[in-house]
Amino acid sequence: MEFRHLGHSGLLVSEISYGNWITHGSQVEEDAATACVRAALETGITTFDTADVYAGTKAEEVLGRALKGERREGLEIFTKVFWPTGPGRNDRGLSRKHIMESINGSLRRLQTDYVDLYQAHRYDHSTPLEETMEAFADVVHSGKAHYIGVSEWTADEIRAGHRLARELRIPLVSNQPQYSMLWRVIEAEVVPTSEELGLGQIVWSPIAQGVLSGKYLPGQPPPAGSRATDEKSGANFIARFLTDEVLTRVQELKPLAEQAGLSMPQLAIAWVLQNPNVSSAIVGASRPEQVHDNVKAAGVKLDADLLKAIDAIVDPIVERDPGKTQSPAQRP
């Protein structure tokens, strides 16, 4: 495993981190989830990403139990706050009330005294940014989180949040966006702003919801049991990639992966790690062998000719519009 600094901070994270968005507490049984966490630890992954909303808070509980007994100082545990976690009007968003209640709930479920990174899961247009950042400052100053991050914020939102974080003397060090060969909306604005301000990207869906694995074939129904057939596993997220044009071009990447001595998932993960602003790529798994395969992308260097060949294939199907980075217009 290779390690990178999270933005300009002193925190080192594993190049590949383990996330449990649509697996723990939902798609797979707890024994399988625990086996995947054990596999992650065995392969050198030390960074684990979750959120209070995943599986209706169950994902944090599963991860907490799976990591119990590990040396806490040897792990980097990340979680998030924003999406609804209860039926009440204030069980959502980035109000002071919700942040304070959510951090306590997350720590209880994760069975830890602190998280290394506490992230705003989206930007809250219904709450003054000053209120949100002041609440995050209290979370950090109370020792419940070491660093603050955001997820899917625009460049302007990141800049405004960073300014307040500096005033409040708290470390805003990261952004967690979707990023892959097919989804590059952060490259034009978010990445340059983050580089300027010292934030690193912790990217999710580097395999484009599994599409870049090559298992989805043009003109054929999705494989039985795949993410595309399971509403609980993010079928709505993957749908936009399941066109014949996208799937045909993804198949054309297979010879390039073979040329590089990589599996298709390894090529996809290695590709996002070529971006120097990416601190870590999040992978999920329903089976331990997937973890063992994905982690082989760590430390891989793709040469310039290979990167050009990849671009030549996927360029017509790449989404680059910065406007695709957006949060709900009002509190969900």
From TrEMBL:
InterPro entries given in the database record: K_chnl_volt-dep_bsu_KCNAB-rel (IPR005399), NAD(P)_OxRdtase_dom_sf (IPR036812), NADP_OxRdtase_dom (IPR023210)
GO biological process: methylglyoxal catabolic process
UniProt KW NADP keyword: yes
Lineage top rank: taxon: Bacteria
Family annotation (Gene3D superfamilies): NADP-dependent oxidoreductase domain
Pfam families from the UniProt entry: Aldo_ket_red
UniProt KW keywords: NADP, Oxidoreductase
Domain NADP-dependent oxidoreductase: 15-314
Gene Ontology terms, MF aspect: oxidoreductase activity
GO cellular component, one term: cytosol
UniProt record similarity statement: Belongs to the shaker potassium channel beta subunit family.
Xref: PANTHER family: HYPERKINETIC, ISOFORM M, L-GLYCERALDEHYDE 3-PHOSPHATE REDUCTASE
Protein name: Aldo/keto reductase
Species name: Micromonospora haikouensis
